[in-house]
Backbone:
């Protein structure tokens, strides 16, 4: 098979994901990268023209997993790549290509059980005290940053969901927000009273900023000082800075606040299914990882506190 044929198949698959399954741009980028790695491996493994997708065997795909491991990828990353390859092969098979059965014979590597990083309740109090103190100076940036913190922790939003949030998606009276989650699935999430309190002065400042900069109306809730939608990387930097200033551990991020949202709800007795719906998870098994976090925390308290532990 020529490299151009592989590229053609991949492009057709990505168009299918984009227009028929409506996947996000970031997800499409991940699929493209995973399948590009597969193509690079095949060329290295078989040579430039001496291979064909329909004749690839299970041992060849297992060799691909070994190739990924030698490049330093962990089991979780390899499992993700294998999942992308499975979807690709399923698409080709549905399109009439024969010999796509080999992928079904390859076992997905068991991923390492890594509990998500989260911020403790005491640390959350410190983070919010710091953000509220900074917002009290009345500046646009610090007032906006408090809103970022409130929505990520108060509603458990993903970074991409917060990035895409528009003003029209907010119902302050009803304390609700409409967000666009993975797979372009909409859901309604509650927002806290403190979030509403943080939003009111920010929205006034936002209107003033847009009047000042002029131009076409901007629908985005979160703006930079130029009046444009605040970027994902800027949101991440804001949260990393606040967490680094207030928390005691490294490696915390915007997603850590989502983990903290779920963990603290379960610690307080929230129903697992309710937390699943709030997070926008498709599968309950995805939410159950937070039960393990709670158990780990309780076990640590027991070990530290019980005289005979």
Residues:
């Amino acid at each position: 098979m020529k490299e151009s044929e592989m590229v053609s198949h991949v492009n057709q698959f990505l168009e299918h994901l984009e227009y028929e399954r409506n996947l996000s741009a970031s997800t499409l980028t991940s699929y493209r990268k995973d399948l590009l790695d597969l193509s690079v491996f095949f060329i290295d493994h078989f040579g430039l023209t001496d291979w064909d997708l329909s004749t690839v065997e299970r041992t060849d795909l297992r060799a691909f997993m070994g190739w990924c491991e030698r490049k330093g990828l962990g089991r979780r990353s390899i499992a993700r790549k294998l999942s992308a390859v499975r979807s690709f092969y399923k698409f080709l098979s549905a399109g009439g290509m024969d010999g796509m059965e080999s992928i079904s014979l390859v076992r997905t590597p068991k991923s390492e059980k890594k509990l998500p990083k989260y911020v403790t309740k005491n640390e959350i109090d410190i983070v919010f005290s710091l953000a509220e103190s900074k917002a009290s100076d009345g500046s646009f940036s610090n007032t906006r940053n408090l809103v970022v913190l409130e929505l990520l922790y108060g509603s458990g939003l993903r970074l991409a969901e917060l990035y895409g949030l528009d003003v029209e998606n907010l119902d302050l009276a009803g304390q609700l927000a409409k967000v666009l989650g993975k797979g372009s699935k909409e859901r309604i999430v509650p927002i806290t009273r403190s979030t509403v309190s943080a939003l009111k002065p920010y929205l006034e400042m936002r209107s003033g900023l847009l009047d000042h900069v002029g131009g076409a109306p901007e629908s985005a809730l979160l703006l930079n000082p130029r009046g444009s939608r605040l970027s994902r990387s800027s949101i991440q930097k804001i949260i990393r800075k606040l967490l680094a200033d207030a928390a005691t551990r490294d490696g915390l991020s915007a997603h850590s606040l989502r983990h903290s949202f779920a963990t603290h709800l379960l610690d307080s007795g929230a129903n697992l299914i309710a937390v699943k719906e709030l997070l926008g998870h498709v599968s309950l098994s995805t939410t159950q990882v937070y039960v393990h976090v709670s158990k780990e925390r309780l076990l640590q308290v027991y070990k530290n506190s019980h005289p005979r532990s």
